[in-house]
Input
Amino acid sequence: MTRPRPSVGEQLIEAVPLARTLGLEVTEVGPGRAVVVLPDRPAHHNHLGGPHAGAAFTLAETASGAVVLAAFGRLLDRAVPLAVRAEIAYHKLAMGELVATAELGRPAAEVEAELEAGTRPEFPVRVTIRRADGDTTASMTVVWTLRPGAPPPAAVPAEGGEADAPG
Output
């Protein structure tokens, strides 16, 4: 019996150890939008009793990555998605479970056309983080690029147990 192919969300969480450590859950993913949840856990809390800013940042960046993979995952044999820069604004105190909604800031077809023309396109992904009552606690923009070329070979553990990652 063959195992069903993992969803984009499952692939992302499997590929990003920090996302697994935080217990992030991709609840929705499509080529233009992704939704990721950060559960409320004491290990995530800051001095105010809510999710640490670093956990919120990781939540938002992961949501942005999910929408990028959904939009451009079929191009991974010839382009590597990379976050170029990110800016986050914290608006209100975050408490409890947080939900990040990411939306692609440019049409995927436009970005892909630039890649096909031989350029290295950049495109924004806008993310909104909300708490359970619906209030926005933070907003983030992550600018991504698609670097032309095949991805590097998978990291291979060296004899000492360390991964020999390309740098």
Remarks:
- Residues 155-167 have pLDDT under 50 and may be disordered.
- Strands lie at 25-29, 33-38, 79-90, 98-104, 122-131, 136-148, 156-157, 163-164.
- The radius of gyration is 17 Å.
- The longest strand covers residues 136-148.
